[in-house]
Structures are given as C-alpha cells and as structure tokens.
Write a structure and sequence with these properties.
The complex is a heterodimer of chains A (about 500) and B (about 150). Chain A is mostly helical. Chain A has one domain. Chain A is built from 23 helices and two strands. A two-stranded antiparallel sheet of chain A has the order 1-2. In chain A, a hairpin with a 6-residue loop joins β1 and β2. In chain A, α4 packs antiparallel against α14 and α6 packs parallel to α11. Chain A is globular. The relative contact order of chain A is 0.18. Chain B has two domains: about 60 residues; about 80 residues, no CATH class. Helices cover about 70% and strands about 5% of the residues of chain B. Chain B has five helices and two strands, in the order αββαααα. In chain B, β1 and β2 form a beta hairpin. At the A-B interface, α8, α10, α18, α19 and α20 of A face α1, β1, β2, α2 and α3 of B.
C-alpha cells in the first residue's frame, strides 16, 4: 500500500506540465545524443548540466535521467543504419543490427530494439521501485565506516574493472581525489593546495571539470578524424515487424533485461558490459550460434534490452546509497550536490516528492521513447545529417556558455578548457575519465567518512574490518584491487588442479 | 620505448611528488586522529606509485602488452588546434566583445577552418547559433551573458 501511495505521489509530480515537457525534452535530446557517434550519455549529460541548473531539482533530474535512458535507445539508430555505434553500449547491436539492415530489414531491427528497450527499461524501473526503499532502509543503519567502505568499493570497481589498464584507472582516481582536496579542509577548514588564490580556496568545481573532460574532450575527439557519414534510408512503413520476429525476440528481451539490470546495479560494470554479457549469453543458448553476426534478431533484441535495463539498475546505488557505479551516475551525483541534495537513504524519507517523481517520470519517459523510436526514426536520422563541421563548434560553444551560466566565472571557463585538453589526451591514451570524476565527486565525503571513522575508533584502522557490513565490503574491495595477483597465483592454479 | 605512455607516467610521478611535498606541510595527526594532511599524503603516494608503474611500462613496453595510441594525422591535429585555439581566444575576448559577437566570430572562424565553404552556411549558421544560445540562456534561463561591445544597446 505504501508503494502505491508513493507512486501516486510520484505520478502527481511527474504529470505536472513542466515535468512532462522536461521528460519529453530529455528523451528526445537523449535519443539524439545517443545516436550521434562520439557523444555518449556522460558527455551529453555533462553538457546539459547548466540547462538543468536553471530548473528545480526534480525537473533537473528528470531531464538528466531522460537523457540517460534516451541515449540507450538512440545509440541503436546509428548502429543499425551506419554500422557505427552511437555510444559504447551499442557496439554489440552493430553486429546483427547492421547485418539486418544490409538485408533490407533495418526497420524491424529498429522496432524490435525499441520494443526490447521499452520492456526491459520498464522492468528495470519496476525493480527500482520495489528494491530501492528496502535498500534505503538497510542503508539507514550505515555509519561512517560502512560509507567509507562503500565509496572505496565504488571507486576501486570503476577504476579497476573498466578500461584496458588498471594502473591508468587507479592513477585517474588518485588524481580525482587530489583535485577534490583543493580548497578548504572539510573538517578543520584549513586551506589546502590553494596557494593564496580565492578561486582555489572555494575548491575546483565539479561542473567545469565534467563539462571539460566529457563535453569538450568528446568534441575534440570528434573532429580529429575525418568522418563521412553514410546513413541508410528508412521510412515509417519499413518499421513493421512480423509475429515471428516478436516470437524470436521475446525470450532474448527477458534474458537481456535481467542481465542488464543486475549488471547495472553492480559498481563499475555498466551498460556496455551488460550488452557484451547479454549477447554472449544469447549466442551460448542459441541453437544456431553460427548465425549470430549475420542478422539474427535476437542479437539485436538482447543487448538493446540489456543496455536499457542497466539504467534503472544503476539508479539504485545512486539513489539509495549515494554511491554511483558509473561515470554517468557520478555526473548525476555531482548535479544533485550542485542542488545541495544529498543522495542516500535519507533522500527517500526527506525528499519523497523528488525520488518518486523521478521514478514515475522514468515510466512515462520509456513509453514516450517507444513511440518516438518507432514513429520518428526518420526524423532523428534527418538530424544526424547535420555535418560535424557545424555540430562540433556548436557543442563547444554550448559548453562555454553553459559553464559560464552557473557561476558567471571566466576562471571556471579556463578550468573547463584545461580539462577539455586533458579529456582529449586521456581519451586518446586510454586513461578512463570516469574514475577521476567519481573521485572528485566523492572525494570530500570520502575524506569526512574516513576521518570520522578513525576518530570513532581512536585511529584504529581495524574498525573497517571488524564491523560485519564494512568488513564484507572491504573484502570485495581487496579482491578487486588484488585481482590480477589472486587470479594468477590462487584462482588459476586451483582451476587447473580441478580440471586435472 | 613508448614515448607517450612514458611521458604520461612521468607526469603523474612529478604531480604526485609535488603533492607529496605540499602534503607534508599539513598536520598528519591532530589530537591523535587523522588531520588535514592524512589523506593528501596517502593520495600523493598513490599518484607517485601508479605513475611509476605507468612510466616503467612506457619505458619498457615489453613488460606490458599495450595497444598503440592512434594519434590524429597532421590535418587532424590542425583541426584540434584550431578548435582549442579559437576557444582560448574566445575566452580572452568574451567579456570585452560580449557574448553575441564572440560566439558569431567563433562559429564563423571554426566552421570555415573545418572546411565549410558554402557562403549561405557561413553567413547564417554563426548568427543563428549565437541568437539560439542567447534565447536559451539569456532569455529563458535569465543568465546575464557578457554584453561587451553591444552593451550600448542595453
């Protein structure tokens, strides 16, 4: 009953005219951003922060979330029609999606992707609705040691499990922590690394760094190679699917949705890994695995369901614990802190309108996306024809005005430009950016939790290992950090022994 | 030796070392509990440590199988430099020339530099971009964008 009343409060918030406009705007912009190669959800959301900043927190987050799951739908369009993934979570869709398009079945590929995304996206929002409140209840009992352990888990997972090189991930996380320490000490108030500068005394803002690294970085990466876009034509009539298509896709959508949701909840994994796992699982189960890559509709339905389901999953740790597990949710956490909202268990009791309005908007947004991505694909494709030569500088100047609009500070703009260069170079060199931004967002809170924990235990580090919840989390952290060593010297020999 | 990787690793080591030197100036413990120097010190160790690993891998690439970095060609670098340079100049001129003039000039120069040669586009895109952004930020979000030269018009 409680759930029903919470949801009805949520829908009352989500159905206000302004929020309906915002969710529509969010999902349309999200679809476009997802469709544009080179700009993924994290860049898109970062670029749009300043726009959101002009709204109330609920509308702002509804916009951000709309962009987030809208991206997952949009990525399919370019994968199927151009064989270029709109973002990394659409890579797997290229394999069978483009093969279907080459056989003249681009329409059914896009339609089944939209249906799969809708079913799995809605499923993940239902799971978010059901699971978030009990998790928030449990998290109410967490003290500083548990919070510190959780933040460490989020950070080590995102640094150690994503990207090609673990050392690069950790280096970026440490640099992010260092950046978070610029300004006043969160406990004693002493200035650190400010060198007498008033601007630095305030700390380096999250906004110019996120917009610079993700937004400008993506723009510079976009223009450094010459792109010729060839898009196949589609019409509304082509979008029809057969009963057989639906039958062939039903179970892949269910499996993809489940995998996507679970992977989305896990820190450090995210939509891209979810699609790889879903595709691999489908191929494994299939009676005709050799046909995958030649235009199997299951090869489109499953990863598309997975990437959408991961978004609802990823919102659980963000909203209930205040610990984001991916770059995109880290940026969302940053946005919430800009509004002085503290995500975590108290959010559900202190700001029910916000949380339930946001969740309800996700149901509405998914319905909108289903309609948009079947009926308006030709319109989205038309926008994709805007040349990069125009789009790239337009996004760049949008970043400039956006960052300026929040603090009216030219200093922030220089920070953004500097981090644009860093974002570009790190992108090229395979240094993942998400750990830096996550560490920057969590850094202050992490230091407070660490120092409070050690104060409570009179500087005894064992406090993290004697309390059951924090000990369990720390054990997972240790496994993640030491994984290469454990794998080589413990798990592999044991597996070998078992096989022998 | 993988030059790019070695340089990036070394930069991390230098940054970490500088931070270490600064961190030791803050008290590590205050009244028996960690003080403002505690986390900065450990973080600087982390940066130096990971930087060393990356630098060694860069100097001795055989120790680690790394994918080569695909840097852009000369024309690609020119496009990146154009965008970056134009942005830097825009920031310098933003308050002097104002938002509308700076944005129009930036868009015109960059799209021309990136290869747009249609006079119709060169005439309309920059102006429409500036007006569009002005409507979103100055009219809708009520951001006081710098007026610069156009302050005269109120």
């Amino acid at each position: 009953m409680d759930l029903v009343s919470n949801l009805s409060v949520g829908f009352a918030v989500a159905f206000t005219p302004i929020n309906l406009v915002v969710v529509t705007l969010g999902v349309i912009v999200g679809t476009l951003i997802g469709a544009l190669p080179g700009i993924g959800p994290v860049a898109g959301i970062s670029i749009l922060i300043p726009l959101a900043f002009g709204m109330n927190p609920t509308s702002a987050m509804i916009l951000m979330c709309g962009v987030y799951y809208g991206c997952m739908y949009g990525g399919t369009i370019t994968s199927v029609l151009m064989n270029v993934p709109g973002e990394s979570s659409s890579i797997m869709t290229c394999l069978d999606g483009y093969a279907m398009a080459q056989k003249g079945r681009a329409g059914p590929a896009l339609t089944i992707a939209a249906i799969g995304s809708f079913v799995a996206g809605t499923f993940s929002v239902v799971m978010l609705t059901l699971l978030a409140p009990p998790i928030a209840d449990v998290a109410l009992r967490f003290g500083p040691p548990e919070y510190f352990a959780l933040m460490l888990l989020g950070l080590s997972a995102i640094s150690g499990l994503t990207g090609g090189s673990r050392a690069k991930g950790y280096a970026m996380a440490f640099i992010g922590l260092a950046l978070a320490m610029i300004g006043l000490d969160p406990i004693g108030g002493a200035p650190r690394f400010a060198y007498g500068s008033l601007e630095l005394m305030d700390g380096i803002g999250f906004l110019p760094i996120a917009v610079g690294m993700f937004g400008l970085g993506a723009v510079l990466t976009m223009i450094d190679e010459h792109r010729e876009i060839q898009i196949m034509k589609t019409t509304l009539k082509d979008m029809l699917i057969t009963k057989q298509d639906l039958k062939d896709s039903a179970m892949p959508i269910v499996r993809g949705g489940l995998i996507g949701f679970v992977v989305g909840v896990l820190p450090g994994a995210g939509a891209t890994i979810a699609t790889f796992l879903a595709y691999a699982a489908e191929k494994q189960i299939s009676k005709t695995p050799e046909l995958f890559g030649t235009g199997m509709i299951a090869g489109v339905a499953s990863p598309e369901a997975a990437n959408n389901a991961s978004t609802g999953g990823a919102m659980i740790p963000l909203l209930t614990l205040g610990i984001p597990g991916s770059g995109t949710t880290a940026v969302m956490l940053g946005v919430l802190t800009l509004f002085s909202l503290q995500p975590g268990p108290l959010l559900f009791s202190k700001n029910p309108d916000f949380v339930w309005g946001l969740i309800a908007s996700m149901y509405i947004g998914n319905v909108m996306l289903l309609v948009l991505n079947i009926a308006f694909v030709p319109a989205f494709v038309a926008v994709l024809r805007v040349p990069y030569k125009v789009l790239a500088p337009l996004i760049a100047i949008f970043c400039v005005v956006g960052v300026y609009s929040v603090n009216y500070s030219v200093f922030d703009l220089w920070i953004m430009l500097g981090f644009g260069a860093i974002g570009y170079l790190t992108n090229k060199m395979g240094y993942p950016q998400a750990p830096l931004v996550l560490a920057l967002v969590l850094g202050g809170q992490m230091e407070v939790s660490l120092r409070q924990s050690l104060k409570m235990s009179e500087a005894d580090v064992s406090t993290f290992f004697t309390r059951p919840i924090s000990a369990t989390i720390m054990a997972v952290v240790i496994v993640i950090v030491l994984w290469p060593v454990l794998n080589r010297f413990l798990f592999q020999p044991v597996l070998k022994g078992l096989r022998a | 030796m993988n030059k790019g990787e070695a340089i990036a690793g070394s930069v991390c080591v230098v940054l970490g070392a500088l931070m270490l030197l600064e961190s030791i100036k803050f008290p590590y413990f205050v009244e028996g509990v960690p003080g403002p120097g505690f986390l900065p010190l450990w973080t600087s160790f982390g940066i130096v440590g990971t930087g060393l690993v990356l630098a060694v891998k860069g100097f001795r690439p055989r120790l680690a199988s790394q994918e080569g970095i695909t840097w852009p060609d000369a024309a690609g670098w020119r496009r990146v430099a154009l965008m970056f340079g134009a942005l830097a100049v825009s920031l310098l001129l933003l308050e002097l020339l104002g938002f509308m003039v700076t944005t129009t000039l930036f868009m015109a120069i960059v799209i021309f530099g990136l290869g747009v040669r249609s006079w119709r586009m060169l005439a309309t895109v920059p102006l429409l971009s500036a007006v569009g952004l002005y409507v979103i930020f100055a009219v809708w979000l009520r951001v006081p964008l710098p007026k610069g030269l156009l302050a005269f018009f109120g």
